[in-house]
Design goal:
7 strands, about 300 residues, DNA polymerase, domain 1, single chain, alpha/beta
Length: about 300
């Protein structure tokens, strides 16, 4: 296990890929490389193509001729595979969680436990930061962020506090934001509330939901028949999208879609019941407790 990140549901997700020794597999969220190394251990002449937009992950790259690292967002899955001359792959794995490294080393503002600038960019080449979101977004845009991504039903009071604070000075650090949010926090529930707010900002900065939808929509074309799609999600918004896509072939259900699964979906569900970490894994790695694993096979 890497000190950068402990891979979650490692055995279950690798088993879900149903790996062939000569197959081509994609790790869409390389991080500390734990899942990639597990895949490589089961390959002979096969290959692993790994995506991660964070350049810090390069330090974790294995020295293996069967491995290719792409510093890219996984929303560009198909184009990057075509660039490598690959039309289809045998399996795709995406662990949608944030690496432990980003929480443990708080200089980029992912965690409310460390005082740092409100950055939250996975890709440092991007312009938008959490600071920009908090100081430049309109009230309506802020309400959307916290309603959709923190799942706060009535975010009006929260947004009012932010607007009032930024009239006096810029909101620049995690400590600034925590101080602003104090009227909204309650004893015993502070950490959970702050985690949801920081999650929402991170999702907005990195366009995580849009990227997830775009990636999923590309998977039928780039996966061979019988190939596997394995996704680990950590919050309900992601999991709903993944579940809907695997069951129906759509990232969101429209009125014309059949909610009872009569569409000609490109995948079949392998595990009809979602897979979650064992109590033992949660004890060893508390950050795994919200993980949900879904597996689908290309038909």
């Amino acid at each position: 296990m890497s000190p950068y990140h402990t891979p979650v549901l490692l055995e279950e997700s690798i088993a879900g890929l149903n790996i062939r020794p000569d197959g081509i597999y994609v790790d869409l969220t390389f991080g500390g490389g734990g899942h990639t190394r597990a895949i490589l251990s089961k390959l002979d002449k096969g290959r692993v193509i790994a995506f991660d937009q964070d350049e810090a992950c390069l330090d974790n790259a294995p020295d293996d001729k069967r491995f290719v690292f792409l510093q890219q967002n996984f929303r560009f899955l198909k184009n990057n595979l075509r660039y490598l001359g690959i039309q289809q792959v045998d399996g795709i794995l995406a662990d949608l969680g944030v690496s432990s490294h980003h929480f443990d080393y708080g200089e980029r503002g992912f965690s409310f436990r460390a005082d740092a600038e409100l950055d939250m960019r996975m890709n440092k080449r991007k312009r938008k930061t959490a600071e920009e979101v908090l100081n430049r977004y309109t009230a309506l845009k802020l309400e959307r962020v916290f309603r959709d991504y923190a799942e706060i039903r009535h975010p009006g009071r929260l947004v009012e506090l932010i607007l009032e604070a930024r009239e006096n000075r810029m909101i620049r650090t995690t400590s600034d934001l925590i101080e602003i949010l104090k009227p909204m926090t309650h004893r015993g529930k502070t950490n959970k509330f702050l985690a949801r707010i920081f999650q929402a900002l991170r999702i907005e900065v990195n366009e995580e939901i849009e990227a997830l939808k775009e990636m999923l929509e590309q998977t039928p074309e780039v996966t061979v028949r019988g190939g596997r799609l394995v996704v680990i999600s950590y919050h309900s918004l992601e999991d709903r999208i993944v579940k809907t896509f695997m069951k129906t072939g759509f990232v969101t259900l429209r009125e014309e879609d059949d909610p009872f699964g009569q569409n000609q979906t490109p995948f079949r569900m392998v595990n009809k019941k979602v897979i979650t970490p064992t109590p033992g894994e949660v004890a060893r790695n508390p950050r795994s407790r919200s993980a949900k694993l879904r597996i689908a096979e290309r038909i």
